[in-house]
Structure formats: structure tokens, C-alpha cells
Amino acid sequence: MATVIPGALADYLTDQFIGDDETRDALDAARRGRGRTLVIEPTSTRVLHVISRFAEAVLDMKRNRAQRDAARLWIKRAGHAPSVMVHRFDSTEEAYNATQCRDDIRDGDVLVVEGEGVVGFLRCTWPVAITAEHGELHTVEGDPRTLDDGRYVPSVEAAERIAAEHEFALAPREAAPRHPVGTRVHQGNRTGTVTAVDVPTFHLDTLATSHDNVTIEWDHGTTSTIHPSHVDAAENATADAEAQLAAAEVTEAEATEGTWRGAWIGEQPAADILFAVEGTVEQGALFAPEAATAPAVREPIVARASFRPADLAQLKTKAAADRAAYRAETDDRIAAECAAHGVAPSQGVADRIAARAAEQAPARRVIEGVIVQHAGTAEGSTPSNATHPDIVAARAALDGLAVATMTDHHDVTEPTEDEQHVRGYLIDPRTQGRVAVYWLEGGRTVRRDQMPHGPALDCLADRLKRRGWAVEKMLRSSACVFAHRPTTD
User: Fold this and answer.
1) Which residue in 14, 258, 310, 419 has its CB near the most CB atoms, within 10 A?
2) What predicted TM-score, i.e. pTM, was given to this entire model?
3) What is the percent of the chain with per-residue pLDDT over 90, rounded to a whole number?
4) How much is the average pLDDT of 364-382?
5) Which strands make up the sheet holding 405-407, listed edge to edge?
6) What distance in Å separates the CA atoms of residue 205 and residue 138, rounded to the nearest whole number?
7) Structural domain boundaries in the chain
8) How far apart are the C-alpha atoms of 11 and 80, rounded to whole Å?
9) Rounded to the nearest 5°, which phi and psi values hold at 140?
10) Using CA atoms in the order 137, 142, 143, 148, what is the torsion angle rounded to 10 degrees?
11) Which of 175, 170, 173 is nearest to 119 (CA)?
12) Per-residue pLDDT tens digits for 408-454
């Protein structure tokens, strides 16, 4: 049955990547209806559901008013998409990538990859598998029905039905380890005691709250709230504690009693040696009596530094130059990207680029009433028309407004990449004192009804009127201002 897609929604769909094969085929085979509408022949209700998903995305993203109205009209006719939809892919890698960029795949949708024997669902931004095979998808610990307080029960049930139809084995659902209050646990090289269980925790990565966490007070004094699967029960915790207590009770006297500490190494009676040995010299002062009692004194280390003013000024100058170079490079990159998309850069970027160009340009001598030309360019007109008397008079009337720098080969309908930075008014002489004044943005002429730059034509018309020029009435779609040079008696 033929189905009509409203014009603004049809335009939006045309600009989007349609990942669903059935919907893409239906849109490719569509024909234009009245206005900008599209007439499609859907092969199943899935096509309508996918388009409803895109319509809901338009409303969620708060697009322009025409697209919002078209999306509401579509949903009124075709209805909302189901809360859980099934999407099929050739590989788990394709499925994973699709969940990150496609507007028709939502939280809770079921993902099927028959070629790899994988069935799963999308949990927020994480595609997870419920089958034994998972490929590139994530896995779930425990029963997936309990995730986020049972939020994904419908998705799990739909995924299990599909897995049963294809005889895919489900992933084992071992219960997550439980550690009651008072249990000694360890993680890596730290050990602690569980002080609370079933603690709710909000996870920023999944934007969900889990309620099966435990709070652990570690022996070194800190506290953590983590999932019980991240820690293990401490083995022989009691024996370790008793051993630590026994070691702490050993006194320094008991530890050194009967040892050589504090005595001379190899000390012998003076009568039994051939040469007299000075213990502190030959054996070092480590075991000297005074060394054992005198505390070690560490002299403080004092570091002093000074900088010459000239060096500091040089560093500051270099830092300022580096900042200016980075800002200039960033502004040029932003201006190039804006020009590539046919839009004007922000006023701040344009002002900085203009100021930098003015600083780098050589000083010019202003000559009253003369059109300045250089390097095959002219301001406000093409170089070939720069000396035309009507152009000179119009330039004088529009003095102070932004002027476009033009060449004779500049195509205002298809500007080159180097010409897409041109902005300002352009005057084209006609006959008998009549001129056409255009406004250029990104090197192209703009129409009066083209927002946000169309009103510039009204500003040009107002200036010419106030300077005595006769301005012809403009239409809503006018691309220029026609004006007649005032006659001089």
C-alpha cells in the first residue's frame, strides 16, 4: 500500500544513513509526490517502524519547526515504533558499530547475528550478548533479567525466543558472588571487611543504577563501594591477623637479645692480635657505641634560583607568540571548515582573521574617490568595472559597509575553495545609471528570503535610499537590489 512521507521528514531521511536494508530499499524505490513528499511502497510494517524511529529522533533532537511538524504528522498517521525492535546483522562487529551511530536502534533493542550464533540486546550504549557465543559484544554476569532493576526483561525474553528458534546455546548464568557483612575480602594487595551489602550505585558509563554492590572498609583506612565480583574472600584471614598481632608484640629488646647488634664484629683480646685495630676506622662507625645512641641529623637542602629580567621577558614574548600562532592556526582551520560547508564563521573568528590580515598588510595610501585595485582584484566590483562611474557613485553611497574583494573570474554561484572566504556587497553596473547590488556570504550571492544573511539586502536598500538613490521594490526571493543613481542638476 502506498504511504506518503511528509516533505520535511522526507528531506531529513534523504540526508541520513539508513542502515536497515528493507527501509533503504523502500526509500530508494520511492517516487516524489506533491511538493517535497515521498511516496513509498513498504514491504512490511518494519519499514514504517524504522521511519517512526527517525521521526522520534527528530522530536528528541528538537530539529527545525518544519521537520518537527512533519515528524508529528507521520507519528499521528503511522504511530510510534515498538519499544523493542529486532535488528539483524552479518557480524558482531557490524552490530556493535551500528548501535553507536544509527538513530533507529534504541536502548533495549534486540541484536541478532545468525552467522556467528549470537543474540543480544542494547543496554544503554553497551551491546551485550545472552548466548554462549558473543563475538565482539559484551557479556553479562549473572541473570540479565536482573539488570537495572529488571529494566531489560522484555528485551531478554525476546532475545531468548529468537535464540531458541535458531537453537543457539545461552550463556551460563552463574550467580554473582555474595559476601555477607563481616566477610574478610581482598583485592590485589589490599584486604578489608565488608560493612554493607546491596548498596545502590550509579554508573556514569551506562547511566544506570545497580543495587547489588558491597561497601568494604579496607585495612589501610579507606572505603570502597564495588561489585562483589571484583573481590575474593580472604583465605586464612584469621591466621594472618593472629600472625600480625604476634609480630607486633615482639619488643626491640627481644629482637636484639643474644645477637651481634651493638658489638664489634670479630672483636679479639689485644694480646692475641699482631696489629692494633681501631674498630671505627677499620670496620666503620656502624657499630660504634656512640653511633648506636646518637640520632642521625640530616642537614636541610636549600636551593636558591634567580632569573634575569631579560630572560623572563624573552620567555613571555615567546609564549605570547606561540599563543598567537596557535590561535591563528585554529581560526584558519575553523574558517576553512565553515567555507567547506557553505556557512560563515563566527563573528569573533572573522574579526580576528580580519585584524590579523590588516596587521600583515602593508600600509596603504588612501586616495579620495579612487577605487583601489591590486593583484587583479577590486573591492565592491570586478576589476573590469572598477572605474565605471556608476560603480564609483554606488561605492561612495555604501561607504562603511563590508565590501567584497572580487576578481574577474569569480563565479558567485559556484565559488572555488579560495573564494569561499569572500563576504560583503558586490555592485554590477547595468545601463543609464542603474546598478544591481548583491550581498555575498562564503563567496556566494544570497537571496532576500535566505536566513540569516538575506536581510543584508534590506540594509543595502535602506542605505541607498538615504543617500538619494531610487530603489526598485524587491520581491521576497530577490537576489539583489536594483537602484538608480540620483540625477545631478
Assistant:
1) 419
2) 0.40
3) 19
4) 64
5) 373-374, 377-379, 405-407
6) 14
7) 3-78, 86-165, 184-238, 372-484
8) 20
9) -120, 130
10) -80
11) 170
12) 888 888 888 888 888 999 999 988 889 999 999 988 899 988 888 88
Of the candidates 351, 344, 365, the one whose C-alpha atom is nearest the C-alpha of residue 441 is 344
Would you say the C-alpha torsion 86, 91, 94, 95 has a positive or negative sign? positive
User: Which residue carries 574472600 as its cell?
Assistant: 233
Q: Is the alpha carbon torsion for 25, 26, 29, 32 positive or negative?
A: negative
Q: Mean pLDDT over all residues of the chain?
A: 81
Residue 195 burial by CB count (10 A; 0-12/13-18/19+): exposed, middle or buried? middle
